[in-house]
UniProtKB/TrEMBL annotation, chains A, B:
The active site is at Y456 (proton donor/acceptor). Pfam families: FAD-oxidase_C, FAD_binding_4. FAD binds at P116, Y117, G118, G119, G120, T121, S122, T197, R198, S199, S200. InterPro entries: Alkyl-DHAP_Synthase (IPR025650), FAD-bd_oxidored_4_C (IPR004113), FAD-bd_PCMH (IPR016166), FAD-bd_PCMH-like_sf (IPR036318), FAD-bd_PCMH_sub1 (IPR016167), FAD-bd_PCMH_sub2 (IPR016169), FAD-linked_Oxase-like_C (IPR016164), Oxid_FAD_bind_N (IPR006094). GO terms for biological process: lipid biosynthetic process. Keywords: FAD, Flavoprotein. It comes from Moritella marina ATCC 15381. Its cofactor is FAD. This is FAD-binding oxidoreductase. The record marks R299 as: Important for enzyme activity. Substrate binds at R387.
């Protein structure tokens, strides 16, 4: 069964290796886990639904709890504390376009607000209900989860928008095809969610971001049915696909998704190369991606992430041996790990590896083969379970991500890491409620472009004395770093979308005129403004977001 | 000096080889050239300007003539006949953003309509003035034509939007870089025009369409300055770049363009392979593009285009020898020519060629080396001069283009060619004014995607008895084929944009809701609707387009 207050299936558990305890103690300090709330107690808190009876609406309290939060850190703290604050008034599970059309008509007539829901994996507050005079209906797309058609000649697959990652791949693989979209959230997130939040998968170097994969589909909007035809390319005016991608439910509910798929590749392997320093590693990565080497995946961990990954991997003896061997070649402290994937025909993979070795060698890279890379690939979707394991020991983990042009990668990366390490300690004399805990901060680049790279930073800190303090600490970290990102040529999100948590920073990034243009689009499709309010752009009657509330608490 | 009534520089002339005459006679029949108007006579027809005096506005008649038409066939007929119908009331040549801001303010105050003008190469009526109570100002971007900055680390170049193709490449090449965007109109078209019409270059397989190359820039809109930041990728909501691309001047004037450039490649060559039949050639091309072979360019001519190209190439003896050699290997009548380019390191080019040969051989392709391919590359921007040479002999040439998914390529291609060959003969008893001339129709695919392909059809027919008849014939061909395209899963344009000529078909392609969304965008940026009226979407006070007028003439 899916966890009601965390990630994934209850049966799946990730145990931290013994090496992890000592490492975390040294880096973050001792801590006491906070106490989890019980589901039965939360059920008692769920208020009566404000929704009328409807054949398509479920008002059961547990169902409403299970659709009240995503996977952001505030969501996590709300679920663990049981302090959910808001619940949807009901959940619907439409099975087809007719159900969706009926629901949206009903919601317009009754002035009900609508939150579209895919896998519930948002880390930016996309699917959270909020303070509202109007009733809120969450529309769970989970029953529209099938491969509807596969055109093998044009390599276009048609899916119900609620199809989660594993079912997308299983249904395609049965016919010899793959979509190749593997975000970290793959286990739960859905193909429709990927489209409307502009998701990116780990193998985007080969398969492209969802922007490249999304070919067309159907959207049920409050003003009617939007059918987006598939063309290989078109110069016929602005591309409506690019408006839908990133619209985050504001213009309607995506019901059918047509995507560009490929035949399963002849061969796929992942490999690891170590570099003596960050500068050498980064230059090598930039050089690789600017030289058209056919890689399917590339990830570059900075020195602290490399150290952390090796410490948390277990296999103490093997790691010690590896480090000894690396040291012989001059790659010691400060070393950086590059993981890369090759996918294609055997001929293509062999040639790409040749070119890669030549370039990485010129930057003192030490190639270690496919053992560690393939291990990484095996375990790559288990990472979200890591948060659960850390939580049990009293540690809190969150991530921040952006993308920027190459000339700015080092600058922005340093500013983000430095801020996370220091901001909680600033003004600590007047800010005793927060204190200044030790933060363990590390970063990787995981999506590479000729123009620049994503920056993905993880931070681990110990839970505060209580939930409120922990949330206040997070809010200060999140807010101050988000400001740094948008004021330093970074995008507020490379792969997680805007939701409610990033909305306050979007005007700085895009400018007032662009925000007005997005607003006019939303108004066209949703004149009553019932679709996913407060996400992406501010709604006229916007109450304070959770982040703003928490931020206010920090300041007060 | 630039031709006032045709393509390119007056000094450049393309002579048809002697083989061409006999070929055209056989395929299209005898004809008499129509008489060209003289510039001095047209100057006398230019009415007084309705524009007030302004330091940035030129009201000279010849300048207004030279900005009154693009390069569509009706434009061509208007320029050759001297029957321009409409002229801009003046032309401005802004030198910077301040000039543009001043101009747009002035135009808003004075209710002046604005037509942005790049290279004047539109083949869809983008830059043509029209019947209007309001004065019309054409804004020629030709003085904003410099490389402003080059970030070699992020590979981003910043250009004035009016920079034409040759100057884009020359300024980049001086520093070892290339944009790699080579549309047929390269000699005259501008980087800003490429962006706002969603242009595609001949080497898009390597460099991408302008959609992939455009990274950001500045737009001067009637309501203010829109600054689009560069990010390698972003999930922060809908992408404003995708709204600007294809906006065709409706939301403002693009003034600065930031594009993704690359280092000049180590090696580049073009090659030719012949296939015994269209089906074998098309399957080979689809297979190549779906197999991730690193080609920079691919073009596949159908049998009639292959025959035509060989006949018009001159070099009679060499071609006869080639055909003899091909026949020995079983490739005779019905043969199809594939031209392809390889660009990259020597290693990459060698490996791509190996893979290509393997795949094309499996489809009975006969590889002939780089001689013909490199000849094609040398001459590739001279093709527009071909129209001038044909015109002098009394022949009219035009093209139609679309794109569709692979499963539909053969179907749509056949429908387009059949319609062009037969539609003028239909109802000829009641339609004597038109008659039923012989059309020579041929097609190539020139932009390939894993999902499908562009379809580019050329048709040659003899000029009518007069200009009116010739225009009426064109209108019938254009209208009926455009209907076929949008009703058969084709886009109304793969690479030329919408303009005024394709606007009537856009709602069929995109649907009413999408058109409303585009309208709401235009209204946001241009509340007075002064920007490029009648392009892209219908304007409220739309007079009949030239196409509709000509069409009406056909029917009456």
């Amino acid at each position: 069964m899916k966890r009601w207050n965390g990630w994934g299936d209850e049966a799946n558990k990730l145990d931290l290796p013994s090496t992890a305890d000592a490492f975390l103690l040294a880096k973050v300090g001792t801590t006491t886990p906070l106490v989890d709330a019980q589901l039965r107690d939360v059920i008692k808190q769920v208020p009566e639904s404000r929704l009328p009876n409807h054949r398509l609406i479920n008002r059961d309290p547990e169902t409403r709890i299970r659709h009240a939060r995503g996977q952001s850190l505030p969501d996590w703290l709300a679920m663990r504390s049981g302090d959910f604050e808001y619940f949807p008034d009901g959940v619907s599970f439409p099975e087809n376009n007719d159900d969706l059309t009926e629901l949206l008509s009903f919601c317009q007539e009754q002035h009900i607000l609508v939150i579209p829901y895919g896998g519930g994996t948002s880390v930016a507050g996309h699917i959270n209900p909020f303070a509202s005079q109007q009733a809120i209906l969450t529309v769970d797309m989970g029953r529209m989860n099938r491969l509807i058609a596969l055109d093998t000649e044009s390599q276009i697959a048609t899916f119900g928008a609620g199809t989660p990652g594993p079912q997308v791949e299983a249904q395609l693989r049965a016919q010899g095809y793959t979509l190749g979209h593997f975000p970290q959230s793959f286990e739960l997130s859905t193909i429709g969610g990927w489209v409307v939040t502009r998701s990116s998968g780990q193998q985007s170097l080969r398969y492209g971001r969802i922007e490249e994969l999304f070919a067309g589909g159907e959207v049920i909007t409050p003003v009617g049915h939007l059918d987006i035809p598939t063309f290989p390319a078109s110069a016929a005016g602005p591309d409506i696909k690019a408006l839908l991608m990133g619209s985050e439910g504001r213009i309607g509910i995506l019901s059918t998704v047509k995507v560009r798929v490929r035949k399963l590749a002849e061969q796929e392997n992942f490999y690891v190369t170590f570099f003596p320093s960050w500068q050498q590693a980064k230059e090598a990565a930039k050089n690789l991606v600017q030289s058209d080497i056919q890689l399917s995946m590339l990830r570059l961990s900075n020195a602290i992430e490399t150290e952390t990954q090796l410490a948390l991997a277990g296999h103490e003896k093997q790691i010690a041996l590896l480090e000894k061997a690396l040291a012989l070649f001059g790659t010691k402290d400060g070393k950086c790990m590059m993981t890369f994937g090759l996918t294609g025909t055997k001929f293509q993979c062999r040639n790409a590896l040749k070119q890669l070795k030549k370039i990485t060698k010129a930057h003192q890279g030490l190639y270690t083969g496919s053992f560690m890379g393939n291990k990484w690939a095996e375990k790559r979707f288990t990472m979200p379970y890591f948060r659960e394991a850390l939580w049990q020991k009293g540690y809190v983990v969150d991530t921040l991500e952006t993308a920027t042009d190459w000339h700015n990668v080092d600058n922005l990366l340093a500013k983000i890491e430095t801020n996370l390490r220091t901001v909680l300690a600033q003004n600590s004399s007047t800010d005793n409620a927060i204190g200044s805990p030790q933060l363990h901060v590390f970063t990787h680049l995981s999506h590479f472009y000729q123009q620049g790279s994503s920056i993905y930073t993880t931070y681990i800190f110990k839970a505060g004395e209580n939930y409120e303090q922990t949330l206040a600490q997070w809010a200060k970290l999140k807010h101050s770093t988000s400001e740094i990102i948008v004021n330093n040529q970074g995008t507020i999100s490379h792969q997680h979308g805007v939701g409610k948590d990033h909305q306050p920073y979007l005007t700085t990034e895009k400018g007032t005129l662009t925000i007005q243009a997005i607003q006019s689009l939303c108004d066209t499709f949703d004149p009553q403004q019932i679709m996913n309010p407060h996400c992406l752009i501010a709604s006229p009657d916007a109450s304070e977001s959770e982040l703003e509330q928490a931020q206010a608490q920090v300041i007060s």
